[in-house]
Amino acid sequence: MTANPPLNYGERLGAAFDRFGHLCVGIDPHPWLLDRWGLADTADGAREFGLRVVEAVWNRAGIVKPQVAFFERYGSAGYLGLERVLAEARSAGLFVIADAKRGDVGSTVEAYAQAWLTRGSPLESDAMTISAFQGVGSLAAPFALAMAADKGLFVLAATSNPEAAALQRARVGEGSSAGSTVAGAIMAEIREWNAVRPDERFGSAGVVLGATLDLASFGVDTEEEERGAILPVLAPGFGHQGASVSETRRIYGTLSPGVIVSESRGLLGAGPEGIEDAVARRAEEVEAQRGR
Ligand SMILES: O=c1ccn([C@@H]2O[C@H](COP(=O)(O)O)[C@@H](O)[C@H]2O)c(=O)[nH]1
C-alpha cells in the first residue's frame, strides 16, 4: 500500500475551495467582540475566542485568517494563544492565512517569513500577508521560502481601506513599470512570480485586493484571461466594510477563480450562539453567487 503524497500549496488551497467554497472566516478578537462572546479582554480571552471560531468553522468553511494584531497586543501571552489557535486550525485541516502584514528590507523580511512559513515553526501557517512598500523585489527571500516550504504569500496591492487610494493609484515614475499605478505594478510583478510553476493549480504568490474598490481605477485588470497557475486573491472588505458577496463576480471578473472571500466582524458579531449558522449560511451564499 502506498501512502498519499502530501498536498502541495496549490492543491491545499484548491482542496479547501472544492470542499467548502471560497469563504474565509477572519479571526479578529476585537475587545467589543470578546465582550459579545462573554470573554475577557485578555490573552486567554483572545485564545479562547480563536479556538471557538476554529471549532465553529470546522466542516462549514475551509479557510481562516487570524488577524495577528489582535493577539500581538497582549505581548508574549497573546502570541502563545495565537500559536495554539494556529496549531488547532491547521490540525483541523483548515487552510490558515496569518494576516501579519510584514515588510522590510530583504534580509529582515526573510526573518518575518521564517516565523510564519517555516515548517515546524511555532507560528506555522499556510500563508501570510506581506507588504511590498519596500519594493516587490524586497520580498524575493519570502517568496523563495514559500516555494521551498509549500507555503504562500498574499502581497498587499489594492487594500480595502479608503485612505490607501491616493498612494496605491499613484503612477510609478521609473523602471519597467513606469506609467502603471502602484497597485497595477505590484499585480504585474506578482502575476509573474505566480507563473513560475505554471503546472500548479494555484501558485505561491498571491495578492490582496479589497472588495470595496473599483479595481479598474487602481489599474487592476479584471478582464485579463488566466494563464497557467491561477492567481490567489485575498479579498477583504465584505460585510462590515460594506461589500456584498453577491458582488464578487462583478468586482473580480476573471480573477474570481482565485478569490478568497474574507469576512471577520460581519460573521463574528453573530456571537457564540450564532456563529455556526452564520458561517454555514455565508459559505452557501458565497458559492451560490459563484454559480456552482
Ligand atoms: O486591505 C485589507 C487588508 C486586510 N484587511 C484585514 O481584513 C480584516 C477585515 O475585517 P472585517 O471585520 O471583515 O472588516 C481585518 O483583519 C483587516 O485587518 C482589510 O480589512 N483590508
TrEMBL record:
It catalyses: orotidine 5'-phosphate + H(+) = UMP + CO2. CDD domains: OMP_decarboxylase_like. Pfam families: OMPdecase. It is an enzyme of class 4 (lyase). Pathway: Pyrimidine metabolism; UMP biosynthesis via de novo pathway; UMP from orotate: step 2/2. InterPro entries: Aldolase_TIM, OMPdecase_AS, OMPdecase_type-2, OMPdeCOase_dom, RibuloseP-bd_barrel. PROSITE patterns: OMPDECASE. It comes from the Bacteria. SUPFAM superfamilies: Ribulose-phoshate binding barrel. Its EC number is 4.1.1.23. GO terms for molecular function: ligase activity; orotidine-5'-phosphate decarboxylase activity. Residues 22-279 form the Orotidine 5'-phosphate decarboxylase domain. Keywords: Decarboxylase, Ligase, Lyase, Pyrimidine biosynthesis. SMART domains: OMPdecase (SM00934). Belongs to the OMP decarboxylase family. Type 2 subfamily. This is Orotidine-5'-phosphate decarboxylase. The gene is pyrF.
